[in-house]
Amino acid sequence: MTMRFCRYCDEPITDPDDAVHLWHEESMSGPGRDVWAHREHADLVQPDTTLVRILARALIAAWKTS
Asked: What's the pLDDT tens digit per position in 14-61?
């Protein structure tokens, strides 16, 4: 069995019925990974906005140089 960890509290999810699949994160060097949360934490998890911020900075820099 694969060990799953809650994205919200970083604790292991020991009960498979308590695990909620939130999304799949792609990876630059592999197949990526699934993001899980405890059922009670699923609505509290926010997506990681790092990639959106990097893309926004790149688009702004490209716009300024054009």
From this structure: 999 999 999 998 887 888 889 999 999 999 998 778 878 888 999 999
> Contact, 63 vs 33, CB < 8 A?
no
Q: How far is CA 21 from CA 18, 41, 58, 60, in A?
A: 10, 11, 31, 34
Angle at CA of residue 31, ends 22 and 36, nearest 5°: 20
Q: Residue 61 is which amino acid?
A: A
Residue in the structure block whose two tokens are 């970083």: 10
pTM: 0.67
- Are 18 and 28 in contact, with CB atoms under 8 Å apart? no
| Rg, the chain, Cα only | 16
